[in-house]
Amino acid sequence: MAEKNEKSPPLPDSVSVDNGRHIDERILKHSHDADVALQAIQQAGDGQVIEIDAATNKRLLRIIDWHLMPLMCVVYGMNYLDKTTISYASVMGMKKDLRLVGDDYQWLGSMFYFGYLGWEYPASQLLQRMPLGKYSAICVVLWGLVLSCFAAVENFGGAVAISFNGFGQIVGGAVAYGIAKGTDKNGSSIAPWKIVFLATGLFTICIGLVFLWVIPDNQLNARWLSQEDRVLAVERVRINQQGIGNKHFKMYQFKEALKDPMTWAFAFYALVADIPNGGISNFFSQLIVSFGFTAEQSLLYGIPGGAVEVVALIASGFMGDWLGRRVMCSMGGLVTAMVGVILIIALPLANNDGRLIGYYMTQASPTPFVALLSLISSNVAGYTKKTTVAAIYLISYCVGNIIGPQTFRPKDAPRYVPAEITIVVCYGVCLIDLAFIWWWYSSQNKKKAMIRASEGYAKLENQEWLDLTDGENAEFVYTL
């Protein structure tokens, strides 16, 4: 760790930023209004600026990635899989066992998101006020308990009361197929679809307990980092102008979030894009059956769809970072999905293989959704503002997923043409929204560059740790 000998220049009385707000020295004097990293940096640096060389930065990144990424990938994968078990279960006897008739299945697919919707904003506030890692771990464990309870459901009313969590595509398809074959051959005292819910629920509980032990609340209490490395891990993220967290709700940041056009552009995308997601996630097994395959084959043939999604997400992420065009590159997955739905609609019923390929292409659609999640992380600053934008985004996600299953009406089976046309229209509208998001951030970056180049502009000392919003911080550069 190297240190500069000179101290940072003295603070000006105030500095004007791009939205006309003024930030004065009071913020630094009252550190409880700043980011929690500020005190740690000031204590460790003894008033001097800490510098990190390339080798140290690489070493820290490797340690952090190896401790966080594998478990985060498993948890996020399980989170995605909870949307798809109901689709597998629908062709494994669940509809018959629960005596689902009429629109019951559609509402069962939508019902989970009513609970999600009701708890979304309170959860965002708890995430700001409570230790992040511990709160998240408790949620994962409780989620596993609810998932396991679904195995005890006996009718539609019970299914609605428990709500829905589940398993999913690559692993889910293989497990569901194995359970279906095994119980068919050897018999079972428990329905096959219940075994899937029970197994995945117990696994989720185990993952939640591991999460509690491994995942820290922030860099400052990561047990697998030394005391010195904890401070360095905070310092290495200074450049992103976002800090590591602030536990105080700030009304002005909440209001700024509501006035920011990007908040609503994100929310609009989540709403419209998740109408197709809600429909396809709940009906893809039945859709594959409609292509002329058996229920058992649909469990197996759904697996490649998960592989398509993995490849699309990796390719989109790599190309986006390489070219510095995250939003534009993510649009490729959406175009691919749109072509896939058109194939399902346009190809004749006899062309089972072609329509199945069309379904596989639709699985590239999540690339923009994931890109926008990353933009909320990288392009929204101010802890209260960030949690507010994330909550609005996920509320819209819930609403879209509630609407989605309702577009697949029983009377439209087996082709579900109205639902498929709805999906194509939604994808087209989403492409326009993504183009607007890219244009807006590009124009804002140009405005901020002009402010930084203007006469009299001065950057505050430790401005990165003051819990400023992206709107009031002229040093903040948006990722495209």
UniProtKB/TrEMBL annotation:
Coarse class of the protein's main subcellular location: membrane
Gene Ontology molecular function: any one: transmembrane transporter activity
Topology in membrane: Multi-pass membrane protein
Species of the source: Talaromyces pinophilus (Penicillium pinophilum)
Source domain of life: Eukaryota
Keywords: Membrane, Transmembrane, Transmembrane helix, Transport
Keyword Transmembrane: yes
PANTHER family (UniProt xref): ALLANTOATE PERMEASE, PERMEASE-RELATED
Name this polypeptide is given: Uncharacterized protein
Keyword Transcription set for record: no
UniProt subcellular location: Membrane
Membrane-spanning parts: 135-153, 159-180, 192-215, 299-319, 331-350, 388-404, 416-441
Pfam families per the UniProt record, alphabetical: MFS_1
GO terms under cellular component: membrane
